[in-house]
Amino acid sequence: MLIASTKLDVIIDTLNRQMVAAQKQPLSPPEIMILRGIWQHLTYNQIAIDQSYSPGYFTNVVAPELFKKLSQLIGKRVTKKNCRALLQSYTQEQIIKQKTFIRENFTNFSVNNNDKPKALPRYPSGSIALDSPYYIKRTPVEEQACEEIGEPGALVRIKAPQEMGKTSLLLRILDYASRKGYHTVSLNLQQIDEAILRDLNRFLRWLCANVTHQLKLEPRLDDYWDEDIGTKISSTLYFQEYLLEQLKKPFVLALDEVNRIFEHPQIAKDFLPLLRSWHEEAKRFSNWQKLRLIVVHSTEIYVPLQFKQSPFNVGLPIQLHGFSLEQVQELAQRYEIPWQGEQEAKQLMNLVAGNPALVNIALYHLHRTEITLPQLLKTASTTTGIYNYHLQRHWATLEEQPELLLAFNSVINSTEPVFIEPIIAYKLSSMGLIKHLGNKVIPGCDLYRRAFLKK
Q1: Within a 13 Å sphere around the CA of 177, how many CA atoms are in the beta-carbon half?
Q2: Which one of 12, 13, 39, 294 is CB 3.0 to 4.6 Å from 254, fit for a cystine?
Q3: Residue ranges per structural domain of the chain
Q4: pLDDT tens digits, residue range 270-293?
Q5: 6 CB contacts (<8 Å, ≥6 apart)?
Q6: Is residue 75 pLDDT above 80, yes or no?
Q7: Prior bond to 250 cis, omega within 30?
Q8: Of 155, 271, 148, 290, which Cα lies nearest the Cα of 208?
Q9: pLDDT tens readout for residues 213-258
């Protein structure tokens, strides 16, 4: 039977929802990495090396557990060889069942009094869709960012640890720009091959080629690339004399996960000042005023740059923090959780310190009445708790980088703020595991202290 193509993200979302419905843990990040690698026809070694994991860990631990989990879910033996076909077929079956359920249950549903059926919450994973009722607006920074994008030559800098809502905010800024008729291009630097990040020429050609593709223009890199004038001037001329010349309306270029560049100091020392120069060119040339830059990163930059070369001391800075008590209460209402007063929200805040991802996961499970709040609080840091895979992912990273584990242990074992080396602090902060208090740090939330003290 010919199986129609289904996007991998749809397959992963379907699998996660079915696993949660079956009271099983959703796919872990390493398991998702393996699926993405299989879809790209990569070996386990290639997947592991690309994601900076041990090949043996993927081959001997993650893959067998993944295929066992998938086999139990769909009722057929899943292997690397038949994975694509079986998961495509399974996902389509689930989509058909869902459509049939909606048709049978909501065909006669009255829509005359604005009583449309509410969308069921999906397991929180990644950025929040534009039409999701579970997005909490980040006031007032969202309005500030949208206003700034309307200014010629704008530069907006969004910084926050992982899973703090950066990409969800970025989606809304780009949506605002699109509705204003602006051209938009969004590039996630986590998607770049490691080899490209070791060579400035390849990196800038990658950047220009991807921007050209998303703008649906004809690529003309070789017409502007000249080794005699250098790759930075070549890329600048390509933007100035070709891309921006072709565009009649403002052009928003969003660069997500820019902290990936920080890990390659030689590239960072050339590329980041180049971004700053493009921003500064808007003061002199009208063509450059069309370019509006959004730079998203999860850590402070730890690559030394001259003050006048850094793009991180110009433009509009936006720092995202955890949810407030009021925002947690508002989100609980959207999940239709019948809390009375502030007590329950405070208990959840004490556990996860308003971390948006952790709050959403908790409210999702509470909405499904799979667990009570007291049970959730009691088991949160254990292997049977709802945060097990979230914590396992962090633990795997800490184990692979002993210097991070050693520093983090000193933080969670202290009752006072601790000083740790800046680069180590930046990395732990980007993971959300710690918070800065001046020059010292504390655990990101009580969940992390409780969970990792046991390790």
Answers
A1: 30
A2: 294
A3: 8-102, 141-319, 389-452
A4: 999 999 999 999 988 999 999 999
A5: 88, 91, 92
A6: yes
A7: no
A8: 271
A9: 999 999 999 999 998 999 999 999 999 999 999 999 999 999 999 9
pLDDT tens-digit map of 438-451: 889 999 999 999 99
Q: Count CA atoms within 13 Å of residue 204 on its CB side.
A: 25
Tokens at 95, concatenated: 């989509």
Which CATH architecture is the domain 141-319 placed in? 3-Layer(aba) Sandwich (3.40)
177 Cβ contact list (under 8 Å, min separation 6):
146, 149, 184, 250, 252, 292
- pLDDT (tens digit, 9 = 90+) per residue, 180-190? 999 999 999 98
Q: Are the CB atoms for 149 and 252 separated by under 8 Å?
A: yes
**Global pTM value:** 0.73
